[in-house]
Amino acid sequence: MVRFNILILIALATLMTSCSTSTTEEDDLYKAVATTNKEVTISAIEQEVIDVVNDYRVSVGLNAVEFSSVAYGYANAHNEYMISEGIISHDNFDKRASKLSEEANADFVSENLGMDYTNANDILEAWKNSPTHKKVMEGNFNYTAVSVTADENGVLYFTQLFFQ
């Protein structure tokens, strides 16, 4: 049943996005994730995003989600990939979900992305106003991580992974 849920999520993610088949750069970043120390320090804006998402979840009667350093590595890798491609995308989501399933014993994985927002409240509002992103934020999850990374022009990319 657990694997079935992951397969359904992968199928939905594939149908909802146009994904590239070129994965070399992100695969290399994933190799780096697998070999890095699991204790991490997150930035102030990353903590703010987690805080506002948790405040929102609690306000609608859901549990707060806990930070996962494993998911953080994959969120960072995906931001670096999107920056290298110059576009926001859910490319290779199936690989992120599979890696989290293996490394964090995740049963179900989802993600929200954003680009060109400047603070946690703005990205939260954008996600709340999108039915798909809102559904992810309100999902049955216990863990999360968010990476916020600036490109060379200062444009911020956001990847938030959720899993249970």
TrEMBL record:
Keywords: Signal. Transmembrane segments: none annotated. Residues 1-24 form the signal peptide. It comes from the Bacteria. The keyword Transport does not apply. Residues 51-162 form the SCP domain. The keyword Membrane does not apply. InterPro entries: CAP_dom (IPR014044), CAP_sf (IPR035940). This is CAP domain-containing protein.
